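Re: Re: token formats

Sure, here are both.
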Amino acid sequence: MKNYIEERVLELANYILETGATVRACAKKFRVSKSTVHKDLTDRILEINSGLAAEVKAVLNNNKAERHIRGGLATQQKYKGAYK
């Protein structure tokens, strides 16, 4: 694996751990695709640091479990002013 990819993977992992951000937010922050973030944080990180991979996986699983709640809140905010 090339050095710049390893550096990106570690940066993404540390950002996710520090902020608890979603894959989408992380992709936006680092200006890469969601697919790249997902591949980096599920596959490539295992080759670099398996302990860090487990921590990141826990955050990603938590975000996945909560995504239906975030989606509902976003929809609520979208239509909140529409029916006044």
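Second one below.
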Amino acid sequence: MSNKNFLEIGLFVGVKGIKGEVKLKSYTEVPENLFSYKVFYLDNSSKPINITFIRKVKQNLICKIENITTRNDAEKLRGLKLLIKRDQLSTLADDEFYQVDLLGFQVYNLNRDSLGEIITFNDFGGGLLIEVKKNDKKFYLPMSSDFLEDINYVEREVVLNLDLNFIKD
């Protein structure tokens, strides 16, 4: 069911207990902010689901989904994506972006040297990083405002203020 009208905001990664509770990995900046959205979908269904936040355990959210009452029922959700419709997203300021919209963008430095293609985003505590792939090699580049020069949505490219020596072999 995934298409441009939907946005993946979480992944069911496991179960908790015997009463049908599920472990959900949230893709929102603050995991609990996932519940600021009102209507959710599974990636295998166009029917909305009702999901309730129970508690947070480490980095996962423990949730209850309507009509899921046993561990076996909950196990069927493992590996499924949690989606929202894109029209639920708030309007962004000019200097903001949704990470998912930049996946697959080409990355260049100011000299137009290719640094690779964005494959994912990570923040290990020191600021936002993009994982980039170039010539079968993967590496991380900083994506903070100190380095970000431009995002061109039409050309699907990001320009960073980085020296090419930054990624020498």
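The chain is about 5% helix and 45% strand. The first helix runs from residue 71 to 75.
- S.
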